[in-house]
Amino acid sequence: MEKISQLFDNPLFRNIALVFILFVVVYILTRVVNKGVFKVVKDNNSKYRFKKLTNFFGYLVFIIGLLFIFNAKLSGIGTALGVAGAGIAFALQEVIVSVAGYITIHTSNFFKVGDRVKLGGIKGDVIDIGILRTTLMEIGDWVNGDLYNGKMVRVANSFVFKEPVFNYSGDFPFLWDEISVPVKTNSDYEYAQKIFHEILLDEVGEFSNTSQLAWDQMIGKYSLENAKVQPAVSASFDENWITFTLRYVVDYKSRRGTKSILYERILKAIKSSEGRVEVASAAFEITAFPGRTA
C-alpha cells in the first residue's frame, strides 16, 4: 500500500492517469451524444455532419483538458503557447490550413458529402470530409464521360484557400449541355429543327420545370441574369452544311446517359425522315488525277 501511495504522489503518474480518465470520459460522451442524435435524426446527411461536428468538439475538449492537466497555473498556458506557437505554426502550417479549411467547408456552402466537385484538378463525388483531407471517388481520367474510374483520391482541405473549387451540384444541381448535328444544305431545315425540338422536349422537358425553380432561387440569392433553361435549337450554316445546336439543361449525374439517348433518337428520326434530312460529312471531290510516267 505504501508503494501505491507513493505512486499516486508522483505528479507524472497523476497527470498520465488524468489524461487516461479524460480520454475515456470524452470518448464515452461523444458516443452517447451521437447515439442519442441518431435515434432522433433520420436523414443520413444530417447524421454524418453531426457526427463530424461532435468528433471535432471532442478533440477540442480533449486538447483543452491536456492544457489544464499539464499546466498547474493557468497563467502559464499563454506563455507556453507563445513559446511553442511559432515553431508549431511553421512545422504544421499545412495541417493548420487544412483544419481551417475543414471549418470553412462546414460553416460555408463550399460543398458537402454527395456533391460532385473539382478540387486541385481532381473531379469526383465527395464521399467523406475529414479534418485534414476530403475524399473523392474520382470520375474521368482514362474513362470518358462522367463515370467512376475506381480511384479514391484524398485532397487536402487547404485547397479551398489555394485553388478554385468547382461544384457541379451546389445551389443549381443542373448543367447546360449541347449537341451539334450537321445536316446537308439541301435538307428540309425547318422540318429538321422541328423534330429536333420535339425530341428535346420529350426527353429533357421535365428537367426544365425543376431547373427553373432552382434557377429562380439562384437569382434571388446571387446577382444573375434570368437565363433560359428551356430546351432550344439554333441553326448556323456555311458552304458545307447546316449545323443545328441542341441546347438543354440536364441533371449533373445524367449528362452522359441523356446525351446517348438523344443521339439515338436523332439518328432514328433522320433515318425515318425518308431523305428530308440527311447527315452531312466532309467530302472531297477529285477532278483530275496526276499523269503517270511510264
H-E order: HHHHHEEEEHEEHEEH
List the strand order in the largest sheet: 4-3-2-1-5
Radius of gyration: 31 Å
CATH architecture of the largest domain: 2-Layer Sandwich
Low-pLDDT segments, ≥5 res? none
Mean pLDDT: 78
- Helices and strands: which structural class? alpha+beta
> Which CATH class of the largest domain is shown?
Alpha Beta
CATH topology of the largest domain: Alpha-Beta Plaits
> How many domains is the backbone divided into?
3
Largest sheet: 5 strands, antiparallel
Percentage of residues in helical conformation: 40-55%
Q: Tell me the span between the first and last alpha carbons.
A: 118 Å
- How large is the share of residues in beta strands? 15-25%
Q: Label the overall shape.
A: elongated
List how many beta strands DSSP finds.
8
Total of helices: 8
Could you give the topology of this structure?
Elements: H1 2-9, H2 11-40, H3 44-69, H4 75-91, H5 93-107, E1 116-119, E2 122-129, E3 133-139, E4 148-156, H6 159-162, E5 166-167, E6 174-183, H7 189-221, E7 232-237, E8 242-251, H8 255-271
Antiparallel strand pairs: 1-2, 1-5, 2-3, 3-4, 6-8, 7-8
